[in-house]
Structures
1.
Amino acid sequence: MSEATRLVEAMGSGDPRAAAELLPLVYDELRKLAQHRMSLEKQDHTLQATGLVHEAYLRLLGNEEMTWANRAHFFHAAAEAMRRILIEHARAKAGPARGGGRKKLPLDVVDLAREADPARILALEEAISRLEQQDADAARVLRLRFYAGLTLEEVSKAMGVSLRTTNRDWAFARAFLIRALGDP
């Protein structure tokens, strides 16, 4: 068992020192995750990768009800925290003061994670939320692909399912997005 896995489990058991010891061990991986996500944003984005990592880590530690089963679960939670931060940031930028009228948008490129337009990010998030009501696993695959930048193999490992199942969920999620975001 790696030291990071041991500390994640200790945090889940309520060890207050584990969080302080864990950050130096996972910081580089969290930073890479954030840098990947931020590389897909506009160059003039006001949020930086370092700030995203720190905010996500604070949210993970601030949620005392959250426990992690293992390292993969911790990184999934970190990716979800980063996703939520970016969604909140996009909502703030797309607010009424910034002309944030929502509209249905065509899906011309499946990898919408590269999109920096707040309206498109919000449309994607709304579609993923609808997908989650139909198929939670497909929505989880989509979030891990778009927001964490994981490959299908990495998603399969993180979710603890076969690559075949992940591919099936990914195909369903992509088709759902085309219907949800495509032109009528």
2.
Amino acid sequence: MTQAKRPLTILLASPRGFCAGVDRAIQIVERALERYGRPVFVRHEIVHNRFVVESLEAKGAVFIDELDQVPDDRPVVFSAHGVPKAVPAEARRRNLLFVDATCPLVSKVHREAERHHEAGRTLVLIGHGSHPEVIGTMGQLPDGAVVLVGDTAQAERLEIADPTQLAYATQTTLSVDDTANIVAVLKRRFPAIQGPKMEDICYATTNRQAAVKAIAARCEALVVIGAPNSSNSMRLVEVAATYGCPRARLVQRAADMDWAWLGDAARLGVTAGASAPEVLVDELIAAARARFDVTVEEVPTTEENVVFKLPRALVA
């Protein structure tokens, strides 16, 4: 006799998965392939997700580390995370055809950085030093013009030559709560510090964290579908743990899921980082259905309708 499957309720965070910047970046690579043929070179992972990268590779994209790997006669796309100014400058010097897929919300931070620098202010950038977005933002200004701060302890130790000429900006994919704490320290220590008119953490990062906060305490375990090098995905794991979920972990896709880790959990939270496609969520739910008697409860917190235009060169 077939053994009855154990019931499992999946609380599905909403919104989750692709944001407008990621969707635009992927479309840019696909349009470039249609327009220019194979191969189209892409500097760094277009977004931080292996499934997406491998899907684009199958269509003819070639992912490279630096521009010296791009032949003179082929186009190159810059990733959604943004690049230092030296990268497009080198592309122009070589007369390369390039398309910039930098997320418009990251470009907004770049413009803020330039504005503060032109006004003579030192810029404090809140972010993770090894992340390509931070490297790109710091690369908008001359060496030494940006001071990187990663946590409240660094903010407490920060020494600035002229505290009256100071501004801050942030990486777009940080923890909303952690960033608020760092900003509070900076404002207490440097009352004249100037910040963005609207916060730099992007709408999608904010909304996905809010969606996890809404379900975390109701879940006995929570899975974030995303990549280990995806900042926004890793922050979702941290948010789940902070807001009352006893077990939270990152899984790249269903094949990587350790079902024994669930133990006897009756409620599993599921979300996806901003660079993870919905097909990977569907895949995980299907794998769960093979093992459990699954009930899916979608928990919406806000609706998203943001769309970013594609570059004119790919639309005309």
3.
Amino acid sequence: MKQSFILVTALLASTVAQAAPEIYVIDNMHTYPRFEYSHFGFSTQQSRFDQTSGTITIDRVAKTGSMVVRIDARSVNTGSILNEHIQAEEFFDTKKYPEITFRSDDFRFDGERLVTVNGTLTIKGIARPVTLTVTSFHCMLHPMANKDACGANATTQLKRSDFNMGKYAPYVSDDVKLTISVEAIKP
């Protein structure tokens, strides 16, 4: 009897430790990919995208994950009259390529902390490998939605010219810092 109890307890403990991957849906109201670049060396210009969707799957026990982030390139918000200019063919070419995507199935952890996400960024139909460095990562019960939620901030550096968007370089810098601030909630 005692051995049966120990065996059942061990089996239950092993199933608890093998948590299943959890799926989160990106919250568009709190997710803003943004980019910044030097403008003639005078200032750092910052713009963002206002429409983002996708899913994040994470298994915090197995320390694995995947994500798909879809950015509506037509929602670019420069904070000025340049929205149409930056959607033109020499930049995002949103008539032909209305969506930017980031896909990953390679999450890297240091202990409990997510530190990098390796994936593929596609802009204007050009796919390039990108490593996002995660500067913050937090999961908890969302106090207003009363559902599990996770959020993160991640950054990377890229070159506009790698995506056929190098017009005006080097005066408008070819180097761009991309930051993805994301919140996602379990459905």
